[in-house]
Amino acid sequence: MMKTSNIILSVLLVGILFSCDKVDRPVVPDDTEKLIQKFYPEDPANFELNPTFPENTNTNRNVLIEDYTGHTCNNCPPAATIAKNIETTYSGRAFVLSVHAGGATNSFQRVSADYPTDFTTEAGTAYSVDIPNFFGNPSGLISRKIYNTKLWLVSGDWDAATQAVLNENKLVANIQIISKYYPETGGVFVHYEVEAKEDISDDLRVIILLAEKKVISPQKMPDGSKTSDYEHHNVLSGILTSTYLAEDGSINYSSFFGNNIGSLKSGEKKTGLAINGLKEMNTKRTINADGGNDLVVFALVTNSSTNEIYQVVTQDLEF
Predict the structure, then answer these.
(1) Which domain holds residue 262?
(2) Which DSSP category does 54 fall into?
(3) How does strand 200-216 pair with strand 173-182?
(4) Is residue 135 in some structural domain?
(5) What is the pLDDT of residues 3-32, one digit of tens each?
(6) Are 66 and 99 in contact (CB under 8 A)?
(7) Is the separation of the CB atoms in 259 and 272 below 8 Å?
(8) Is the dihedral of CA 83, 88, 94, 97 positive or negative?
(9) pTM for this structure?
(10) What are phi and psi for residue 166, nearest 5 degrees?
(11) Which are the contacts of 265, defined by CB distance < 8 A and separation ≥ 6?
């Protein structure tokens, strides 16, 4: 027999899915109820599935700089410096995400006694394999938008490509998020609201990622030497979207390219929820939630056909 709390939660889900006039039903994983029960430490019947978002007054399109790097790649530190300088120059408008991935081989990410940290993630590897024409480390994506006929760019083009997006400042879609971490379960919950700023015919996707702001770990330098206390910046650590519970209770992913929220008309809004656990989203290494590693949530709105990132926002995850 279903517990009373489960019945109440099911009724709550149905009520929210069909009662909203201005905002379409939340876009949530198929087994949201199970994920809430796994990661929400209190009575699931009291979980606020669809919080109220304030009016989103933002008028600017932000830029995501994805730096595909590796800890044994000696040309990667100069590229990382370029990315960090761009982020500093356009503070609040440009955001760096360091992705330790190198296509199918991931040769510069291999773990050894000298380079013991496994920075790779399933999501990062999927992007380097499935987004066409990856050419090796270091390489970068600037909001996954084509610049001078190319999608994957050498680091020398990152600044100009970033400026091009910022100067055009074409805001296709806005996104805002509310994130919450529950230390009792290690669960991370991210509610999001997407608003179309123009008619969008292609399906949109929302990708919620988690990154560590600073990780101190060895890195091979341009001269071939090793720096043991190298500071790795905004390291991709996991993904929260498109999660589901496997039969054995583990977390699996239906896609690393996010939740599909469909096409939107100008002014139309869609809300959704992404859930995962710190340990579950990264099984290769410990994400220290006790103050050792500051964590930041990246929320992306993408075009499902081209992978272009229409908007990115970040939010520090509070503990």
Answers:
(1) 20-58+171-208+238-316
(2) P
(3) unpaired
(4) yes
(5) 333 433 433 343 333 333 334 445 444 578
(6) yes
(7) yes
(8) positive
(9) 0.90
(10) -65, -40
(11) 196, 199, 200
